[in-house]
Every structure is written in structure tokens, then in C-alpha cells.
Amino acid sequence: MAVVIGLDIGTTSTKAVVFAQDGQVLGKHAVHYPLYQPDVNRAEQDPDEIMRAVMEAVKEAVTRAGVRPAEIVAIGFSSAMHSLMLVDKDYRPLTKVITWADNRSAAQAERLRRNGEGLALYKQTGTPIHPMSPLTKLLWFKEEESSLIDQAAKCISIKEYVLYQLFETEVIDYSIASATGLFDLTTLTWNEAALKLVGLDKSKLSQPVPTTTVLTGMNKELAEKMNLDPMTPFVIGASDGVLANLGVGATEAGEVAVTIGTSGAVRAMVPSPLTDAYGRTFCYALTEDCWVVGGPSNNGGILMRWLRDNWFKNDRDLAQLTEDEQYQWMVAEAANISAGAEGLLCLPYFAGERAPLWNPDARGVLFGMSLHHTRAHVIRAMVEGICFSILSISRVLEELAGQAKVVYASGGFARSPEWRQIMANVLGRKLLMPQSTEASALGAAALALYGLGEMKTLGDVKKWIHIQEEYPPMAVEHQVYQGLYPLYEHLSHHLTDEFQRISSFQQGTR
Fold first, then answer.
1. Carbohydrate kinase FGGY C-terminal domain spans which residues (predicted)?
2. 221: burial class by Cβ within 10 Å (0-12, 13-18, 19+)?
3. Who contacts 146 (Cβ-Cβ below 8 Å, separation ≥6)?
């Protein structure tokens, strides 16, 4: 049997999925790891914990699939975007992995937005100006910890760190590079204006290569630990966001992918780079002639985790369930509440917000709380708030790429039928639920076969996509949400000063 592996490094876990060449899942495994938040503005991870997770995930997935090393045709590599770490000449970490959720460079991002320099850079690089961006993180290092930049031999992402451990190669795929804020969309090289801004020589960055680049000759010891042949073709792959679009089959005009995992995103594919006049959307590479535009939200499943950890801590029924079952149980409880949560509206900005606000100071709000509201109302309002944030991004995306005709779902939220229906009702579009919810891993596997010439076009991935369920919007509920959404949007935009004031207060009390 010939199989292909999709490897996906996410924010909270690394997953490896073994696929048959018809897309059937033969085995999979996920390894979780913590996000370290020493203060309100920092969100970091341990690179070696992630490396160990990669090793364990691949080994266990191969074991569960019951395949031999010789049967593995290729491995495709997906990774979360916007990570940054500094390493010395021997690739020993000088910092932890600074993730997309890190806000330490908020002041630098705000300055770039105010002076207009940021918008000009965005139009060249496709990466919105926000603390998530390695561009603003490097500017923070330049201004706050310049000695670390001086010591560093390389400034890299977690994906580059893993690739170096496996192959001792210093390369970065066009997709991850296009999410740094340092990469030129037109020339597919490092952008000179961005490098000048952060005071960085391009020798401290890896060599950009196409996402279909094939690596072989893996470190033999590490290959053995993962039950792999060292010569197994390893396709460098792309970022998790663009691969999620590929992994659900949203490859044509009018097809949009919505992903909600720890965070959320809405994306559509276009044939050439496309940016927004106001800098509200991203534009990232999949291949040289296939780009993905859209917007990310900071707040998705991370709110469900917060609810579980703080509101359900002593719930005995919940304690007996798996993590996925716990979240489904919570959303099912909220399904007993009518659309609109009986007048409770949530601005779900618990971790600041990216698209379309791009405001790291944004904060969560429960608006309209009254004595009759219960725990179930709060869950319902939060789920609806997350869906409203997806709607706000979708409306901006439609201005650029045209109206969505169909929406494909992926990510953890897609395991909850109640949440899927709420999303369809909010968007007013039919929601299609592919059989496999591991869209980024599937996209990585498909891109690997495409890179090897085993898949003729990216559109051929649709042969792998089996729609499990469809969720047409319910007219009455959609009308409720159409009535509530303008209030959601009004509050989001008119609390900007208040967000800034409470954010400053919070930082002063930490």
C-alpha cells in the first residue's frame, strides 16, 4: 500500500495523519503542548517540546496505520504562521518560539499604522501590520533587546527549526515567508524596505523556496525514531491556513473556507497576489500561481477552553469526557437557548483581535447581561460572537474576491453539529462539512503528492473530499442574526478608546 503523511504543527498540538492515495485516513495521532504566557503580552512555546511532539506524532500515526516505511510515498509539512525564534550558529535557541498570539510589539505595530509606513509595507508583503507579524516582533527586538539580535545567527520560524533538525538545511517555503511581513509578493524574495526597517541583513534569514520543494536524506537517528526511511521524500509544504483551504477543497471562485481551531480564519483562493486598500486582509502564497486571501481572528476554540477551565472546573459530568467531547457537550448545552441568546451579545476579543479590526487592545465584552441569563446563555453568546467575527471577515473578503456561494468548514468547531448550524445561520450560506476535519494535514498530504507529480492539479484534491453533511441556513434564525449583527459591529468599532484604556490598565496591574 502506498501512503502519504500530512504533518501539521499547530498552536496547541502537532498532528500527523496517514492517508491512502484516495484520501482515506489510515491512522493519526496528535500530541499537545503548552502555551507559556509569563505576562499579558507574551505567548511563547518551547521549540524542543514541539520537536518532540513532531517525533511522537509521526511515530504513533505510522504505528496506528500499520504501514511499513517503504510504503510511505511522501510527507507533506504544514505549520502555523507568524512564529519567530532566534538561534545561534549551531541552531541552539536564544529565545522561545514567539507565537502569533504574542502582543509584545503592539506599540511598534501601532506606530507603523499611524505613520502610513505600515500600509505601504502591507501592500508589498501581504501581511497586515499587527503584533502577530514577525516584522513587528523583529522591530521590537531591535528597539528593546538589540543585543539578542546581534547574537543571533538566524531569525527563523518553528517550521525552519524542525527542518534544520531533520535535514540541516536553512530554507523557508514561500508560504511561511509570505506571512512574515518581510517577503515581497511580486519578486518572491526578501523585501528590502522591510529589512531596512527592522535593521536586519537577509543573511540572517533562510533561503525562500517553492512550497513543492522536496527534501531527502533525513537525519538517520531521527528517522528511525519516527519509523521512517531517511530517504522518504519530504515536501516542505506551506502554512496551515492556506493548506486548510486546499484540504477542504475550497479551490475555485465562490468557494470559501472557514476554519475555527484555537483561533479562526476565513479564506478564498485567487490566481495572483491581491491586497486590500485598507490593509484589512492577508495575502499568502500556496504556490507561485495560487494565493490565498482572507482574514484571521484571534478568538475561536481558545474561548471554549477558557470557559471550560474557569466555569466548568468542578463539573463531574464534564470531567469524565475527552477534551473534544467536553467542548461538544458545552455547545450542546447552549443549543437549548434560542438564537440571539435572549439578548446577550458577546464581543469575543479575549485575546485582542486581528481581522478586520487589527486591534491588539480589543477586549472581550458580554453586552446586555441581566439576571435571567445563565451559564448556557453565556456559552451561546460566545459561540455566536465567534461566528459574528467570522461574518465580519467574510464581508470584507467578499469586497475583494466576490460573493461566497458555498462555505467549507474545518477545525475543531466542525465536530459540533450545533456550532455548524449556528455558523450557517449567521453567515446565511450553506455550510458543507467534509468527512475529514483535519484540513491542514490533508492539504499538506495533497500538496506533497502534487509536488511529486502524483497529483496533476491542485483541484484534483476534490476527489479526496467527501462531504459528510450539509447545513443550509435556517431562515428565522438568520433573520435574528441579521438584526443583531449591526449592533455587534457598532460596539466593535465604537469601543476603540475604551479598549485602549482598559488594556493599559490591565498591563499596569500585571
1. 257-451
2. exposed
3. none
Burial of 12 (0-12, 13-18, 19+ CB in 10 A): middle
What element of type H or E holds 450? helix 439-451
Residue 510 in grid coordinates: 500585571
Judge whether 427 and 390 are in contact, CB under 8 Å. Answer: yes
- Cα dist from 8 to 198, 247, 250, 285, 338, whole Å: 30, 12, 19, 17, 37
pLDDT at site 413: 83
Q: What is the dihedral of CA 94, 221, 11, 203, to 10 degrees?
A: 40
pTM: 0.89
Q: What are the grid coordinates assigned to 64, written together?
A: 496506528
Q: Cβ neighbours of residue 150 under 8 Å, at least 6 residues apart?
A: none
Rounded to an integer, what distance in angstroms lies between the CA atom of residue 156 and that of residue 84?
Answer: 6
Find cell 531527502 and name the residue. Answer: 216
Q: Domains of the chain, with CATH numbers?
A: 3-247+435-468 (3.30.420.40), 301-430+472-508 (3.30.420.40)
CA 174 distance to own-chain centroid: 16
Q: How far apart are the C-alpha atoms of 394 and 388, rounded to whole Å? A: 10
Strands 207-209 and 171-173: parallel
Asked if 64 contacts 12 with a C-beta cutoff of 8 angstroms, the reply is no
pLDDT of residue 312: 85
Report how far residue 189's alpha carbon sits from residue 200's, in angstroms, rounded to the nearest whole number.
14
Averages of pLDDT over each 10 residues, the chain, 510 residues: 94 94 93 91 96 98 97 97 97 97 93 94 96 97 96 98 98 98 98 97 98 98 97 97 93 92 91 95 96 94 90 82 87 94 97 91 96 96 97 95 91 86 96 87 97 94 92 98 98 96 86
CA atoms within 13 A on the CB side of 408: 29
Interacting residues of 386 by C-beta distance below 8 A, sequence separation 6+: 260, 264, 297, 299, 300, 303, 348, 413
Say how far apart CA 441 and CA 308 lie, in whole Å.
27
Report whether 392 contacts 492 (CB < 8 A).
yes
User: The cell 500600509 sits on which residue?
Assistant: 119
By the 8 A CB rule, do 183 and 177 touch?
Answer: yes
pLDDT for res 510: 64
Neighbours of 350 (CB within 10 A): 18
Other CB atoms closer than 10 Å to residue 497's CB: what's the count? 9
